[in-house]
Amino acid sequence: MVSLVISALLSAFGDWLSGHFSNSFFWMLQAVNFIVSIIILAVLFALMFKFIPDVKLKWRHVVIGSLVTAFLFDIGKLGLALYFGKVNPGTVYGAAGSVILMLLWVSYSSGIVFYGAEFTHAYAMCYSGRLPPTEIAKNVKNRSHPDRMRPQRSKSI
């Protein structure tokens, strides 16, 4: 969220920054913001993709998946920041504009996270062949669930 605000501010104050500084300084700030944001997001996505699923993923698969997810997330964040900085779509909805903008951001970001998790899964399946479950997943799988138990029929003579 903080990186989205910084990107939106850089986009909104782009004209002012390029008037007071050289145009190359503004683009250098954008590039540094993009790279730092990708690194931070990739670390957070890697931790999420490694420790949340109940499968044993290799770090090399998690790193590739988190970098792809972070890149897509940052590209979309940059696009939304440019859109929010130039157009201000919240004014159409009046007082509810900030809620609409927040819903738009949550919808976009959750879609990217789910797509990144699916990409990581598909990448790991492609290069590993199968993903073994963790010990917790094995224990849950072997338990008999009460909803699955069928009543025994008595034999009538």
Count, helices: 6
What characterizes the major β-sheet?
Answer: none
Helix and strand pattern: HHHHHH
Proportion of strand residues: under 5%
In short:
The protein is mostly helical and 157 residues long.
List the helices and strands and how they pair.
Layout: H1 2-12, H2 14-20, H3 23-51, H4 59-86, H5 97-128, H6 135-142
3D architecture notes:
- This protein is mainly alpha-helical and 157 residues long.
- It has one domain.
- The chain is built from six helices and no strands.
- The protein has helices at 2-12, 14-20, 23-51, 59-86, 97-128, 135-142.
- α1 (2-12) runs antiparallel to α3.
- The chain is elongated and about 85 Å long.
- The chain starts with a helix and ends in a 15-residue tail after the last helix.
- The model has no long low-confidence stretch (mean pLDDT 78).
Feature tags:
elongated; mainly alpha
